């Protein structure tokens, strides 16, 4: 399978989002995803609309939105509009909710709610009426695009959510980690879900969420994305650590990060309360090993190829660093060309 690469954007400004999208497309990225966090960053679908006009090739869409802040009829209409703007390049990423939800002092949707959301969206994007929260809903005009609906991707970390993605979605954004044993577990659960729906793993478009930084000073690279690693510790293990291959010696340290995590500072650059939570050097090293591609271009190529050997070939990078444009360019010009085959 050919390797493909995406970049996730937290839109700190409309201008920077457009610039990063155009650069990502120019240097060979395949997907430009935009995060949904209304209390912290620019509006998701406004940003995606201008990005869709500014690009010509890359897949674009939410990575990801959630059932609590976005009613399925609103999302279906928005992503169908994006499909029109982009000439058929839209996708729809959904999950239970993170900073968008926590910054409203709400709680994420459970598994049953995510299933209901995905099923309703599937019908709406086909131009069909749906039932949601006990009510009949519709997006009548979307029937005009019923022959080319945007694919649905579920963001999943735990076994049950991975199985749900395999069952009801077109694709999955895996957030459980990158080590060989974690990749094996991830693919196993996606396949279980796919089988329930009469599909196979080959029918699911599998991507993995990957923290990234490229350069010569490994310590400095890690320090720059400590807030991302804290975000991962908070999110990937938040409902439970059960079934996620967490070494017992890190269980309590992860819980401490989760209890101290401050959603109002989600993905803040530089020194931040969340970056400060990653003060345990052993936990920090573990999180890097499990969730990140970090080091020189040579190091990153070797790491990507090892993950591919384990069975995942598509990567959605984050890399929320000060010199983000330089990171995007380095990945596209110095890393990806050596990993494509």
Which stretches are poorly predicted, pLDDT < 50 over at least 5 residues?
A: none
Q: What name is given to the CATH topology? A: TIM Barrel
| Largest sheet composition | 9 strands, parallel
Question: Number of DSSP helices?
Answer: 13
Rg from C-alpha positions?
19 Å
Order of helices and strands: EHEHEHEHHEEEHEHEHHHHEHEH
Return the structural class.
alpha/beta
CATH architecture: Alpha-Beta Barrel
What is the number of domains? 1
β-strand number: 11
Q: What is the percent of helical residues?
A: 40-55%
What's the average pLDDT? 97
Which descriptor suits the 3D outline?
Answer: globular
Separation of the first and last Cα atoms: 8 Å
CATH homologous superfamily annotation: Luciferase-like domain
**Estimated share of beta-strand residues:** 5-15%
CATH class: Alpha Beta
Task: Show the helix and strand layout.
Elements: E1 4-9, H1 14-26, E2 31-34, H2 44-54, E3 59-62, H3 72-86, E4 92-94, H4 99-102, H5 111-125, E5 130-132, E6 135-137, E7 152-156, H6 159-168, E8 171-174, H7 180-196, E9 205-214, H8 218-224, H9 226-236, H10 248-260, H11 281-291, E10 292-295, H12 297-310, E11 314-317, H13 324-335
Parallel strand pairs: 1-2, 1-11, 2-3, 4-7, 7-8, 8-9, 9-10, 9-11
Antiparallel strand pairs: 5-6
List keywords for this structure.
13 helices, alpha/beta, single chain, nine-stranded parallel β-sheet, two-stranded antiparallel ribbon, TIM Barrel, 341 residues
